[in-house]
Design a protein that fits this description.
alpha/beta, FAD/NAD(P)-binding domain, eight-stranded mixed sheet
Length: 682
């Protein structure tokens, strides 16, 4: 049992104090068997039963929400949502996860069913404390070992807001909302159909933390619940019984666990018998056509495929043929003051994308997976064009952003001390290999790729029809029929769906060269952000299939240019020079290191699709029921697309997305900001 809400945040001198997450204080006390167990230093209550915490989780929350029967009754592409008040040590999540694994191993019909867990926590455990507690449980319950390892590996930094963790091998999604429970639940978006199917009310006892059992909590439960939702809690306090009854739940006292005489079960608009056989929301599409195989299309296809949908991915040229095909993409956030981070698309996307790419790498170490997707590098942001100061960066957890001592920063980069003042070091920033990502995505058995020109996209009463022509043979057009379509065609998306905003077309040329030995010894050793970005990388044989690189040799890339309303993809020497000049302007000492003659540099030109507010278009196309879009990523596709694809497919499936209504509205293809005309210089 744990807390997710408490009294009003104490005002502090730091401007980001209200957004700061305070880690839990742990006190260790002996249990009934003499073993040490964790107790909350904030509330003086135990995190789990001193008799047997795991057995308590299974009895109170799993058995009394009828989850074995309800989960077993799921069908293909159905999703079941459990919401928990109080993540604590994660023991309830692990108990449910273990049940879900067991059911899926025993019942083949659950192959494409999904389990979605949403949990809240105001005082999260530091990773070191969580590791100590869960290793103790791993000794007691070895069957949890693999899940404990996976959870610890994915445990997020302690930043306010939602952290989505995907465990694709188990078809399980875990959304951890850090912050006050009332505020977190208020941010959850109720889908058009579905909602929370079962509630775990596992906060500290009302006598220890009455705010957790406030009216706002029960009102949020009423708003977010599916029609046949159930709830279970260890507490029979009057405030709990009244809160549930006044917000649409019927309640019943049953025998409690261990020394507890009674506990509560609750349900909405259905008898207890009905609750064991309720039908969870189902992703309504068996087959979806995704148009465009850049990073947006790849992520849309993969997210659907991972949820059991057959996908036909179509591109008029080839995967990554457009702006997504650079040799490497730098995954590093555009920092914002901590107070804004929970609603800042750059920040939440960066955190999710990093986990996603690393997990995809870890899950695809097969013989045909040639190159890693992620190369951990860290990145130094020299704050040349930044929305944050070095002092503000210190408010972040050190595993997200920090400021190194000047001497260490200079040593890390090979730059002078004066150049690295000020700076922000981003330890988990990385280089992404687009070719390796595409290879991994296209190997998914639910994805079929086709090179073709989509000439028309029409919606029917029962699906969509795409008239396509083979791009190479120019053969007569044929028809692809699907249940729905997602338009991911960058700046050309509005040509297939005229209701969409016509994004501005931005030409960007990324340059690179092969440094000689002397240059290599003096160039920066890790990626740098300075308004543009530069990065060293070693090219691989598969890179050469898409770009003119020297396989096995160190390359140094820099860029990129930014030319509005220009769709010509010819490589230009003057843009090589522009990229060099931008770097030298930010870091003058590199003038003596970089080649003066740029004529032999290599390049790739992409045309980016940009919106006026720099947010992509994510959601349904206006005046349609089966046509959706994921486009307008600008230069941030590798950061934005993985999370935005999750949001899009959640909307399609009737699941609660991992963002607030405010952030969701900022992605809408019909948002008011898009109706304002673009000026000549925007």
């Amino acid at each position: 049992m744990t807390s997710t809400t408490s009294a009003t945040v104490t005002t502090a001198t730091h401007p980001d104090a209200a957004a700061t997450i305070t880690p839990a204080r742990i006190v260790w006390q002996p249990d009934d068997q003499g073993s040490l167990v964790p107790v909350s230093g904030e509330f003086g209550d135990v995190y789990f039963s001193q008799v047997d915490g795991l057995a308590e989780s299974r009895y109170v929350f799993i058995e009394h929400n009828h989850l074995p029967a309800r989960l077993q009754a799921l069908g293909a592409r159905q999703s079941f949502t459990v919401a928990e008040i109080g993540f604590g040590t994660g023991l309830n999540v692990l108990a449910l996860w273990q049940l879900w694994r067991a059911l899926r191993s025993e019942h083949t019909h659950l192959k494409d069913a999904q389990l979605h867990i949403i949990t809240t926590e105001k005082y999260p455990l530091m990773l070191s404390d969580l590791t100590q507690i869960l290793r103790m449980w791993q000794t007691r319950a070895p069957e949890l070992g693999a899940m404990i390892n996976a959870l610890l590996a994915a445990y997020p930094p302690l930043l306010a807001g939602c952290h989505r963790l995907n465990f694709a091998a188990d078809n399980l999604t875990l959304d951890i909302w850090l912050g006050d429970a009332q505020e977190s639940l208020a941010r959850l978006v109720k889908p058009n159909f579905g909602g929370v199917d079962a509630w775990f009310l596992d906060g500290f006892a009302p006598s220890c933390n009455e705010d957790l059992w406030a009216t706002a909590i029960f009102a949020a439960m009423q708003r977010l619940s599916s029609p046949t939702a159930t709830a279970a809690t260890f507490s029979c306090a009057g405030v709990v019984k009244r809160g549930l009854k006044e917000h649409g739940f019927s309640i019943k006292k049953v025998k409690g666990f261990g020394r507890k005489r009674e506990m509560l079960t609750a349900w909405r608009d259905a008898s207890e018998t009905d609750a064991t056989t309720q039908a969870a929301p189902i992703l309504p599409y068996r087959h979806v056509a995704v148009i465009g195989a850049g990073v947006s299309g790849l992520m849309a296809a993969y997210t659907l495929a991972a949820r059991g949908v057959q996908v036909t991915l179509i591109d008029k040229q080839a995967p990554l043929a457009g702006a997504s095909g650079n040799p490497r993409a730098l995954l590093a956030p555009k920092m914002t003051p901590l107070a804004h981070a929970a609603e800042h698309l750059h920040t939440v996307s960066y955190l999710y994308s990093g986990r996603f790419y690393r997990q995809l790498d870890a899950g695809l170490q097969t013989a045909n997976h040639v190159d890693p997707i992620v190369t951990p590098t860290g990145t130094m942001d020299l704050l040349t064009k930044a929305n944050i100061t070095a002092d503000q960066a210190c408010a972040y957890p050190s595993d997200v952003a920090t400021v190194l001592e000047t001497e260490e920063a200079a040593a890390q980069t090979r730059l002078s001390a004066s150049t690295v003042q000020p700076h922000v070091y981003l330890p988990n920033a990385a280089l992404i290999n687009p070719q390796a990502l595409a290879h991994s995505v296209l190997s998914h058995p639910n994805i079929t790729y086709r090179t073709a020109m989509v000439e028309t996209l029409d919606e029917t009463t029962d699906g969509v029809h795409l008239q396509v022509k083979d791009a190479e043979s120019n053969a007569k057009a044929d028809t692809i029929k699907a249940d729905a379509a997602i338009v991911c065609s960058a700046y050309e998306s509005h040509q297939l769906a005229p209701q969409l905003f016509a994004c501005r077309q931005i030409r960007g040329q990324l340059s690179w060269f092969t440094p000689n030995a002397k240059q290599q010894d003096n160039l920066p050793t890790l990626p740098l952000k300075y308004g543009g970005y530069c990065a060293p990388f070693v090219a691989t044989a598969s890179d050469a299939a898409l770009n003119p690189v020297r396989s096995g040799q160190q390359q140094f890339l820099l860029g990129a240019s930014f030319v509005r309303n220009d769709t010509d993809t010819t490589i230009r020497v003057d843009e090589h020079q522009h990229n060099r000049d931008k770097l030298i302007s930010a870091i003058p000492e590199l003038d003596e290191v970089l080649p003066n003659d740029v004529h032999d540099w290599q390049a790739r030109v992409g045309i980016r699709a940009q919106t006026p507010d720099y947010h992509p278009l994510v959601g349904p196309v206006a005046d349609t029921a089966r046509i959706w879009t994921l486009c307008g990523m600008g230069s941030k596709g590798y950061a934005f697309a993985p999370l935005c694809a999750q949001i899009l497919v959640d909307m399609m499936a009737g699941r609660i997305p991992p963002v607030s209504q405010r952030l969701l509205d900022s992605l809408s293809p019909t948002r008011p900001r898009l109706q304002r005309p673009l000026t000549a210089d925007k």
